[in-house]
Amino acid sequence: MNDSIVKLANIYKSFGDEQVLAGLNLSVPRGETLVIMGRSGAGKSVILKHMVGLMAPDRGEVYFDSSRLDTLKHAELQQVRRRIGMLFQGAALFDSMTVAENVSLGLRKHTRMSEGEIREVVRAKLAAVGLSGVEEKMPAELSGGMRKRVGLARAIAMDPELVLYDEPTTGIDPITADAIKNLILDTRRQFGVTSVVVTHDVSNALKLGTLISLLVDGRIIFSGKPGELKSTDNPYVRQFLEGSAEGPFRVHT
Amino acid sequence: MFGLFSRLGENVLGRFYRLGEASVLMLRVLGELPYIWSMRQEIVSQMMRIGIGSFPLVAVTSLFTGMVLAVQTSYQIEEYVPQVFIAAGVCKAIIIELGPVITALVISGRVGASITAELGTMRVTEQIDALETMAIDPVRYLLLPRILAGLVMMPVIVTFGCVVAISGAYMVSLLYLDMSSQVFFQGMRQFVYPFDVYSGLLKSFVFGGTLSMVGCYYGFCTSKGAVGVGRATTNSVVTNCLLILVFDYFLAMLLFPAV
Predict the structure, then answer these.
(1) Could you give the C-alpha distances from A67 to A2, B8, B100, B131, in angstroms and in order?
(2) Does the pLDDT at position B112 exceed 50?
(3) B177 and chain A: CB distance < 8 Å anywhere?
(4) Considering the entire predicted model, what is its pTM?
(5) Residue A110 with chain B: CB contacts under 8 Å
(6) Which of chain B's termini has less CB crowding within 10 Å, N or C?
(7) Minimal Cα distance from A50: which residue of B?
(8) Residue A22 neighbours by CB under 8 Å, 6+ apart
């Protein structure tokens, strides 16, 4: 357990009759950026939600550090969550708050920082994601890319050990998407955090990941470094890399 | 035939499931009561939103309710009873029944629906999940302030509504019913008891709790995107209107038993 910050062991999860995770095993080594790839609807976001305790498995075990996350009491789970940041697919900014209030909410609730200190942290985190002068804007006034940046600033505001990214570049233009990818790399370099990125985009995975896993039918069928991904003969990986409709992945039209 | 029974069974089970779900959620809210002080800013903010923001709408509806009540009560009984009883009946009806019920129905449309739509949108856009990942309990942060604000502000709004409605009735009595001020206030003083006022306030307290809890429940448990938010908001208003009328009957039975 010592080298892994998060470990999912033999996880099963269903929604109604639909089995999404079926015996999934996954470890996230400390300091690495793990990219989980898979087709849309494969259950990638469900994995992230297990890692932060938003969902509990039907069967199996989830560990954060040495704590068994899925059996923790609510107060203990809250303590663990303070060590995790998450960037949601749509950024999930609080509509009724300004950018500064969004980024500072965790600091206000969990620290005894003064107003001046909070303002300074907010300014620094926004600067780290390439934003300035937007503190008093409302989320509705921001573009999609800016919302993602603010979401990232909020995710790293409490200096988490683990940051989870749910489809960080979906729905934004390629140039902004590349800027977001650079931000994720910078965040890892600057703050030394462990990261888990969920995406179906191969270029994202190759640029961001130090480790890449492929999710198929509720299990991880490949795990390795980017170089190993490119050279493997695994037919699922080959089809995914080539973006072909022909192969073991069944395409329903 | 079997399909009909099957659907009926599913429907009944679904209602029991929702009742259980709502009860568990409200128990969680009760468990958060010790944190009222730490949530004081949010509570005050919701009190302003629910209370102060509702005053104009309540003023208009109450004014017309009072005026209509005076005109129609007079039309129905002026041939049989002295005017002092018309004034007494109008004021009593406003304080124990129409004030609390009509205000609650108006507020359920304005505030209950808005609570559901707001929380429902927060749910489907993952804002509530985001709060949880930030180790901020959404029950404490979102539900507790709204429910407490509903409980505290509803009696204030109803009191305001009753004053406006009685003022409306008074104006109409003076201008169109040839009633003197002295007769109007004599009827009020003689036949409106402190117990009537307490009963009206108790009703408003119950209705305030009901509409904020129902609004919170439907909003918090919303799913399935924009369609889900619309459905939850409709269900919230319909459930609130029904519950307010049902609770009004049981409170009336409890407070004013037949002698």
Answers:
(1) 11, 45, 52, 21
(2) yes
(3) no
(4) 0.88
(5) 135
(6) C
(7) B133
(8) A12, A217, A218, A219
